[in-house]
Design brief:
Elements lengths: L3 E6 L3 H5 L2 H9 L4 E6 L3 H8 L4 H16 L4 E4 L5 H8 L6 E3 L2 H10 L2 E6 L2 H17 L5 E6 L3 H6 L3 H15 L5 E4 L8 H8 L2 E3 L1 H15 L3
Helix pairs in contact: 2-11, 4-5, 6-7, 6-11
């Protein structure tokens, strides 16, 4: 019997604009049945409120509970900004909850020293940086993190203008590369630029989707058949 993997979304970007996560799960866990659960306003709420309120935590918890009620074997969170809310949600369900940026944060903390965190949504900078720092603390490694916001790029992407979005991120990455030895793309919506940015900057550029789904696949293979 195929496993049910629920993806929790906080915008429609990975459903309609960039279906990278669905494509990766189809590639790496071909027998999985994919379920999508979307609260398309909660990210906007977090941006507007400049932080994660208890109400936003409740909304992510309800999303996870809905996924559990639908019979999900694993829950995969596609949103880095809501990472702390997923920690709360994970305690409310009996199904394993996996964050898209968990594996990426561990690699950054393991290999980087001066790490640039590049985001297109301001609320992603803190949670991504905190997750990398927590992984580094767990490894007893000293790191420095420089945050960089590519303001307006996410709105440009959601409006359907990929080329302008990509140019904005590339310009910021080139400037950031002067100050760091590794760049972390804080949102999965930036991931397809990782290879080109690696060539442009000459640095290791990490993106979450493939690493996150590879970790998801490992967890899926550990589940009882």
């Amino acid at each position: 019997m195929s496993q049910k993997i629920a993806i929790l979304h906080t915008s429609f970007v990975f459903v309609s604009v960039e279906p990278v996560i669905t494509d990766l799960i189809t590639e790496l866990i071909p027998d999985a049945e994919i379920l999508h659960f979307v609260d398309s306003d909660v990210l906007a709420t977090v941006v507007r409120e400049q932080g994660i309120s208890s109400k936003s935590e409740e909304r992510m918890t309800h999303l996870a509970q809905a996924a559990e009620a639908a019979g999900a074997d694993l829950i995969f969170s596609a949103c880095s900004s809501l990472g702390p809310a997923l920690d709360v949600a994970a305690r409310a369900v009996g199904v394993p909850v996996i964050k898209i940026d968990e594996a990426m944060a561990l690699r950054a903390a393991s290999e980087g020293i001066r790490i640039g965190v590049l985001a297109t949504v301001p609320t992603t900078l803190g949670p991504t940086s905190d997750l990398i720092q927590a992984k580094a603390d767990g490894l007893n490694r000293q790191i420095q993190i420089e945050q960089r916001l590519c303001e307006g790029a996410f709105d440009v992407l959601m409006a359907g203008n990929r080329d302008e979005h990509d140019a904005m991120i590339t310009a910021q990455a080139v400037d950031l590369a002067k100050r760091v030895d590794m760049i972390v793309l804080a949102q999965a919506s930036m991931s397809r630029l990782a290879e080109s940015l690696t060539k442009t900057t000459g640095l290791v550029v990490l993106a979450s989707p493939r690493m996150g789904v590879e970790y998801l696949a490992e967890r899926a293979h550990m589940l009882p058949a």
